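User: My instructor asked us to take a sequence, write out its structure as tokens, and then describe one feature of it. I'm not sure where to start. Here is the sequence I was given:
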Amino acid sequence: MIVSIRTVICTLLIVAFLSVSGCTQSTMNLSATPTPSHISPASSVTSANKDELVAFVKSAVAYAQSNDKEKALLEFSNKNGSFVKGELYIYAYDFNGTTIAHPVNPEKIGVNRLNEKDAKGNLFIKDLRFAAYNGTDFSEYYYINPLHNNAIEKKLGYVEKVDDHWWLGSGIYQAPLA
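Assistant: Let's start with the prediction itself. The structure tokens for your sequence are:
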């Protein structure tokens, strides 16, 4: 009986820890990234480089600027759409920090994430937003990588302003959390 109680207590503690530390999708502090089931083998890019990241975001900004905003946001939120390629996917935020499109974390759409912290305590959405204020820039943060057993890894984010109201971004993984 003691082993059963210990097992139950340990299980509850692990679940509580995962929920509080941001390791579960429904209550996590970190944004979820695509799980392997979200990745289409035909369009899979498992390890993009910095140039591909920049080109990917620039293509999304061009799409956003040449289409109706609502149409663009729907496409950016489509996990099977043209803006999800392996680890690369487009996310969109307004300058208040509210998620307005996200293909792999649709429950975050409409949520203000400005004060969310990454695994090292950085306000990563604020940092990305600050980079977008300049028009375009990079920002590093720590994020869950589902392609490596949900390990927390350093991620290089690249963002670009669409207009004075919203911005787009994507990112590539660089290294495991040190």
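For the description part of your assignment, you could build on this observation: Residues 7-46 have pLDDT under 50 and may be disordered. Try explaining in your own words what that tells you about the chain.
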